[in-house]
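A reminder from the course coordinator: this example appears on the midterm review sheet, so study it carefully.

Given structure:
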């Protein structure tokens, strides 16, 4: 798969709420995930740990009122998307989040993801 095809597939699955399937299908076993907004999970390495981190977010999401994922913008072996979410998180209340997600592709797998949020969740 090309970087464009991987990007399109990720967006398609995530728009349908199939984030876990996207990780199984598209992520490398040694995926590195970087959260720029927090020290708690700032750098996570390995598919099992990344899957758990994602599961924790969805466990904390009491209700997702609305979400929107942009079409991907691809450059070489990188792509980015913008995610906007109106979500109520347990213990934090309702938040409007905007996030830029940058992905790095190698050997037809996503090997690194990096997230930049507004507002910061510090």
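Designed residues:
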């Amino acid at each position: 798969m090309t970087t464009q095809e991987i990007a399109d597939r990720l967006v398609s699955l995530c728009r349908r709420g199939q984030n876990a399937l996207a990780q199984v299908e598209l992520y490398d076993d040694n995926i590195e995930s970087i959260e720029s907004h927090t020290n708690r999970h700032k750098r996570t390495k390995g598919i099992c740990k990344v899957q758990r981190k994602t599961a924790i977010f969805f466990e904390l999401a009491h209700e997702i009122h609305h979400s929107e994922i942009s079409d991907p913008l691809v450059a070489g072996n990188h792509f980015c998307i913008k995610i906007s979410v109106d979500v109520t998180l347990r213990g934090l209340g309702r938040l409007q989040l905007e996030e830029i997600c940058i992905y790095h592709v190698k050997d037809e797998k996503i090997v690194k993801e990096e997230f930049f949020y507004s507002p910061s969740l510090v």
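The radius of gyration is 14 Å. The domain at 3-118 is CATH 3.10.450.50 (Nuclear Transport Factor 2; Chain: A,).
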